[in-house]
Amino acid sequence: MMGQKRHDKMMEFTFNVNGHPVLPSYYLSAGAILIILVLSKYFVASCRPRNFPPGPRTLPFIGNISQVPRVKAFLKFHEFGKQYGSILGLKLGSQNVVVLNSYKHVRALFDQKGSIYSSRTRTYVANELVCPNEIHLLLLEYGNEWRKQRKIVQSLLNVNSVDRLLPIQNAEATQTMLELLQSPQDYYDHIRRYTTAVILASVYGQRGERFDAPNVKALYHAQDQFSAILEQGATPPVETFPFLKLLPEFMAPWKKWARTVREEQKGLYLSLLNETRERMESGRGPACYMQEMLRDQVKNNMDDEHIAYLAGNLMEAGSDTTASTLFSFILAMIKYPEEFRKAQREVDQVCGASRSPTSDDVDRLPFIKACMDETLRWRPVAAGGVPHMLTQDDTYQGYFLPRGTIVFANAWAIHHDEAEYDKPEEFIPGRFLNNKYGTRYAVDESKDANRRESYGFGAGRRVCPGQRLAKNSLMLNMAKIAWGFDLFSSGGSGSVNVDVASAYTDGFLIAPEKFPVVFKARSDQHRDVIIREYEAVKPFFDKYMD
Ligand code: HEM
């Protein structure tokens, strides 16, 4: 009886007066309740959690999204820091984000609580479409696979084995000097060729002889596509609207794009692996990291794809980062010519005019080292930091940081903190001469233990494992350029734009936009030495050509 009554009641409301079917009112109310529930879920999720670090007011549903620029957000975070303090809490939609604008917080969280602050956020496009099967070290969540791959990379990049690469770096830097002499207008390509060639030789035992050589071009193309698809906003917000995953490829062109990037990258990395394997099997070619990885393949339990990507990761992580730092150095040298003259004087004292500096000289070049440290401080490449993800709820200085929070160590703000650095906007290498931290005060290491000299390489368990390799390249090229060339801007130093907001590229890694600079050999003798040294180094390259 009861059932019949309910059925009648339902029928009563299923047609309107015109006989058109309508939804029964309780369906409507259920729908409305569902919508309200979903909306309130998103509303609540966009509010800051209790005791979350301070930050700007959130707006319903979007949190702080509208206040955070899509590009160079690190500048805005620095500005917010002045208003809200050095630890900043933000809501990007429902995502909790914390920005650390002081090295003290980075040390306390990334360095001292590394077991919970070392993960990465998993995203559908990056971790499932473009790099599935846990193949990309930089993108890996904290766990066993990351540990395994990180251990392999650290053993490859240990101090001794990295220093064994110095002959490659010396030879490639010698070629770069010749290229800068012959076609200075293409300096951007020459520097990028250098950084790629060093990794190609050390990882694959291959030469990157010219910037337009097929292997160099292929690597840059794959890498540019990879960076482009991972760029914020390049693909729809699948994490917020998971139903987007279900769209077929013809309705979601970004899925096709992801597939193309995946195929190109995988094809390239596997073919580089196979070339090395063939050379090994026929007993040809120089020693390289790929050879070591293949030799230890079974011991490390790594299949071909994982090895191929690990090698590819070294390429991706080590090439543009080092090139960008060298560009910033050149930019600083034309903006601050008096600092460049100091660098030249120092190299002249050590090498004279009859030979250019090599890696054997770098320990006697403290001002060049100060220039390197200052470049890394002044224009950190990963300016906003590479985001870490917190894997457990945590409390810090009375604040509550929920599990899943994305945490940025904002290298830009840390390196431009006026409390730490005198005139942080200025390029002043001298600050690093008597104080390895470059700070305006002498650091008392007994009270300020485990402070890092630079936060440009990140911190904690994910800190860059390629620092030494990068610094060897930076020192060598900075010293050689200062030795061989006068650098200037045709409009004079006053016309050089060094503003990070307008003179630097957007994106997760920043670099100076190509800027006009004149490279002029310092004398005929310098010119002759550059040519002679290149001729002398040519036979070194023979073993990489087959
Ligand atoms: C000036 C040059 C370089 C800079 C500024 C730089 C900076 C960074 C930064 C900021 C990170 C992220 C750290 C974090 O999450 O806290 C990183 C990670 C990494 N870097 Fe570098 N890097 C440079 C050169 C290199 C080189 C030459 C290599 C190796 C050939 C390399 C290999 C890596 C790898 C494999 C990672 C991923 C580590 C992981 O997620 O566990 N980097 N780098």
UniProtKB/TrEMBL annotation:
> What PROSITE patterns does the entry give?
CYTOCHROME_P450
Residues at which heme binds:
C464
Q: Which UniProt keywords apply?
A: Heme, Iron, Membrane, Metal-binding, Monooxygenase, Oxidoreductase, Transmembrane, Transmembrane helix
Which is a Pfam family this sequence falls into? p450
Names of required cofactors: heme
MF (Gene Ontology): heme binding; iron ion binding; monooxygenase activity; oxidoreductase activity, acting on paired donors, with incorporation or reduction of molecular oxygen
InterPro entries (alphabetical): Cyt_P450 (IPR001128), Cyt_P450_CS (IPR017972), Cyt_P450_E_grp-I (IPR002401), Cyt_P450_sf (IPR036396), Cytochrome_P450_fung (IPR050364)
Membrane spanning residue stretches: 21-44
Q: Which domain of life is it from?
A: Eukaryota
What the entry lists under PANTHER family is as follows: CYTOCHROME P450 MONOOXYGENASE ALNH-RELATED, P450, PUTATIVE (EUROFUNG)-RELATED-RELATED
Family from the record:
Belongs to the cytochrome P450 family.
The protein's name in its UniProt record:
Cytochrome P450
What is the organism of origin for this protein? Answer: Podospora australis
